[in-house]
């Protein structure tokens, strides 16, 4: 390898290794942090010991804001109203493939934010990843009472919304 190649590799690898050292392992940990950003109805960013940590709310899946799913923006606003700018308690579980900490979050009122999103009809229980029957019950109650997105006649679950749409194209003549 030439000196230039080695130098380029060193500069490319250096920032990555420093980042890995700075990010604490929060898996299976409970900690307090300030919510500084809401990305969508089930994802936020918190500041913990001068480190930004992306949190994906456990047990729930919200309508897709970035893919223009109905109620996507409403879910983001609901999550913001529940915890933006607050000190929250984060109960870390594990990390997803996008390096977000999967967690249950309690706000300053001691409300479990994940559960509140279901109660407000702003989320589905994420059946693929949650076997917790409390979350199933909260979703069922919101559906029955037609709260939030359950007012819609045929709401589409986010995991179905994210699936690539099959498109038919006219045949070439």
Features:
OB fold (Dihydrolipoamide Acetyltransferase, E2P); 7 strands; 173 residues; two-stranded antiparallel ribbon
Fold-level CATH name: OB fold (Dihydrolipoamide Acetyltransferase, E2P)
Taken together, the total number of domains comes to 1
Radius of gyration: 20 Å
Range of helix content: 25-40%
- Could you describe the largest sheet, including whether it forms a barrel? 5 strands, mixed, barrel
| Beta-strand fraction estimate | 15-25%
Unreliably modeled segments: 6-22
Number of helices, counting only DSSP H or I runs of 4 residues or more: 5
Please identify the structural class as seen in this structure. alpha+beta
Question: What's the overall average pLDDT, rounded?
Answer: 86
**Biggest sheet: strands side by side, in what order?**
1-2-3-6-5
Distance between the termini: 54 Å
The CATH C-level name is: Mainly Beta
From the 3D coordinates, which CATH architecture would you assign? Answer: Beta Barrel
Order of helices and strands: HEEEEHEEHEHH
Can you count the beta strands?
A: 7
Descriptive account of the structure:
- The longest helix is centred in the N-terminal third of the chain and has 20 residues, at 3-22.
- The protein has a single domain (25-151), classed as Beta Barrel (OB fold (Dihydrolipoamide Acetyltransferase, E2P)), CATH 2.40.50.90.
- The chain is α+β, with helices and mostly antiparallel strands and 173 residues long.
- The chain has helices spanning 3-22, 72-83, 113-119, 133-144, 158-161, and strands spanning 30-40, 43-48, 51-57, 60-61, 87-95, 101-106, 124-125.
- It has a 5-stranded mixed β-barrel. Strands 4-7 form a two-stranded antiparallel ribbon.
- Helices cover 32% and strands 25% of the residues.
């Amino acid at each position: 390898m030439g000196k230039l190649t080695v130098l380029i590799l060193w500069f490319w690898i250096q920032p990555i290794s420093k980042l890995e050292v700075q990010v604490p392992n929060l898996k299976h940990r409970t900690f307090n942090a300030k919510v500084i950003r809401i990305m969508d109805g089930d994802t936020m960013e918190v500041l913990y010991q001068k480190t930004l940590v992306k949190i994906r709310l456990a047990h729930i899946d919200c309508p897709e804001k970035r893919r223009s799913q109905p109620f996507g923006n409403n879910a983001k606003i609901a999550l913001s109203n529940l915890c933006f700018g607050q000190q929250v308690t984060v109960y870390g579980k594990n990390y997803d493939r996008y390096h977000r900490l999967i967690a249950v979050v309690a706000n300053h009122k001691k409300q479990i934010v994940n559960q509140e999103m279901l109660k407000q009809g702003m989320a589905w229980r994420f059946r693929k990843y949650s076997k917790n029957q409390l979350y199933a019950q909260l979703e069922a109650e919101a559906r029955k009472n037609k709260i939030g997105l359950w007012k819609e006649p045929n709401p589409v679950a986010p995991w179905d919304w994210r699936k690539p749409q099959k498109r038919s194209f006219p045949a070439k003549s």
